[in-house]
């Protein structure tokens, strides 16, 4: 696969994953799909850090768009620098995306380990914090949270989705850094085969 086609594939994948992260983070802000528990005192710190929106979302959306553009027609066509200028920009953009995905992964991982903030015995707190993540394997503990209803399964599902998406983003951003580096030094093989789509 030539560097241009690879960049387009990676870019489209990153754009899709960034949108998944943005939607997952938006859903975390409305526990159980209702706006009843959207007070700052009732949402966990990991939700309020907006790692899926900022890190896995916007910070990865930019390298995704940059990679798609790097896989397109070069700034000087088939001559001159070809796609090398865009590939070079894509390297820096992908490194930026890598930082965003790492931020998303670390915050989402902490969100899974600490657990959600919920009401138990008339007290809003992180009631699973002392379990160091072992509550994930003991579903009988999940019902201890009185409000919001089903908040544990809600958080576990969405934070797990963010962890998985950010891991894929890290992998794809790393692939694009290598791919774009090859593109900078060797050019885009598609210009030899004919005009790109």
Automatic annotation (TrEMBL):
<keyword id="KW-0472">Membrane</keyword>
<dbReference type="GO" id="GO:0005886">
    <property type="term" value="C:plasma membrane"/>
</dbReference>
<feature type="transmembrane region" description="Helical">
    <location>
        <begin position="91"/>
        <end position="114"/>
    </location>
</feature>
<dbReference type="Pfam" id="PF05805">
    <property type="entry name" value="L6_membrane"/>
</dbReference>
<keyword id="KW-0812">Transmembrane</keyword>
<keyword id="KW-1133">Transmembrane helix</keyword>
<dbReference type="GO" id="GO:0005765">
    <property type="term" value="C:lysosomal membrane"/>
</dbReference>
<dbReference type="InterPro" id="IPR008661">
    <property type="entry name" value="L6_membrane"/>
</dbReference>
<dbReference type="GO" id="GO:0034618">
    <property type="term" value="F:arginine binding"/>
</dbReference>
<comment type="similarity">
    <text>Belongs to the L6 tetraspanin family.</text>
</comment>
<dbReference type="GO" id="GO:2000045">
    <property type="term" value="P:regulation of G1/S transition of mitotic cell cycle"/>
</dbReference>
<feature type="transmembrane region" description="Helical">
    <location>
        <begin position="12"/>
        <end position="31"/>
    </location>
</feature>
<feature type="transmembrane region" description="Helical">
    <location>
        <begin position="158"/>
        <end position="182"/>
    </location>
</feature>
<protein>
    <submittedName>
        <fullName>Transmembrane 4 L six family member 5</fullName>
    </submittedName>
</protein>
<feature type="transmembrane region" description="Helical">
    <location>
        <begin position="43"/>
        <end position="62"/>
    </location>
</feature>
């Amino acid at each position: 696969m030539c560097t241009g086609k690879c960049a387009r594939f990676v870019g489209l994948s990153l754009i899709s994953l960034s949108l998944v992260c943005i939607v997952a983070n938006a859903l975390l802000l409305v526990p159980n799909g209702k706006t009843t528990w959207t007070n700052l005192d009732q949402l966990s710190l990991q939700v309020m850090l907006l790692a899926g929106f900022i890190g896995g979302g916007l910070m990865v959306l930019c390298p995704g768009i940059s990679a798609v553009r790097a896989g397109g027609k070069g700034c000087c066509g088939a001559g001159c620098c070809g796609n090398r200028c865009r590939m070079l920009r894509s390297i820096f953009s992908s490194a930026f995306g890598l930082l965003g995905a790492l931020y998303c992964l670390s915050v989402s991982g902490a969100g899974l380990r600490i657990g959600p903030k919920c009401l138990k015995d008339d007290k809003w707190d992180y009631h699973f914090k002392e379990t160091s993540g072992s509550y994930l394997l003991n579903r009988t503990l999940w019902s201890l949270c009185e409000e919001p209803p089903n908040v544990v399964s809600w958080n576990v599902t969405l934070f797990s989705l963010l962890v998985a998406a950010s891991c894929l983003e890290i992998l794809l951003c790393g692939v694009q850094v290598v791919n774009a580096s090859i593109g900078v030094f060797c050019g885009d093989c598609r210009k030899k085969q004919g005009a790109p789509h």
